[in-house]
Specification:
mainly beta; Porin; 8-stranded antiparallel β-barrel; 1 helix
Length: 207
């Protein structure tokens, strides 16, 4: 694991546990969860660059106040997407990092709780050519923002959730020229990483 990746992971860990230690005595409840699902590239990330649907896994901590619709979420995410475009063929992107989001619980029934969330994060993004081919291999740490919503369904002392979030991580590559034995000199376009992630998971702790 590279030093930047370790730094991002450490930051997420600090963000997860520091608020819990300082606010537990004030009635804030912590809910732990895990989830995973698909990521759908948007804009040029999917259209002109040809990146296909990928996958993501995440772990989260929700901090809530009793009888308040407003909460705080801290999550860590790992995701992978591949490209099958003729220009960016065999290029893969990997994202690892975390986000801090404000959450707002909408009115619902006792067992069904819809919610909205938005926030910002920090991600380490790498784009590289798989299989040892000629092409880009670059990485950068990027600020991101996201916006989305979902619904939770209470099951005893836990809840199942389904959510969708739009995330914009930023531009990873500047347009550059690369040499390929099969194609000669070609232009590698920049990668603007933006996507919609759809995830399902479970969150521990009662509502």
């Amino acid at each position: 694991m590279s030093r930047p990746t370790i730094a991002v992971t450490s930051l997420v860990s600090v963000l997860c546990f520091t608020p819990m230690a300082s606010t537990t005595a004030q009635g804030i409840r912590a809910h732990f969860g895990v989830g995973g699902g698909v990521t759908v590239p948007t804009g040029s990330y999917g259209d002109s660059l040809g990146f296909t649907n990928g996958w993501q896994a995440m772990a989260l901590v929700d901090l809530t106040l009793p009888r308040s619709p407003i909460g705080l979420r801290v999550d860590g995410t790992y995701g992978v997407n591949n490209s099958n475009n003729t220009i960016t063929n065999h290029v893969q992107t990997k994202l690892v990092g975390g986000s801090v989001d404000l959450t707002y619980e909408l009115p619902g029934s006792t067992s069904v709780k819809p919610y909205l969330l938005t926030g910002a994060g920090l991600y380490r993004v790498r784009a590289f050519t798989t299989g040892g081919g000629s092409g880009p291999d670059t990485s950068a740490t990027k600020l991101s923002w996201n916006l989305g919503g979902g619904v939770r369904y209470a099951v005893r002392r836990a809840s199942l959730f389904l959510e969708a979030r739009y995330s914009s991580v930023g531009r990873l590559l500047n347009a550059s020229s690369y040499y390929s034995p099969s194609r000669g000199l070609y232009q590698q376009p920049s990668v603007q990483v933006s996507q919609v992630g759809v995830a399902v998971g479970v969150r521990l702790g009662g509502e």
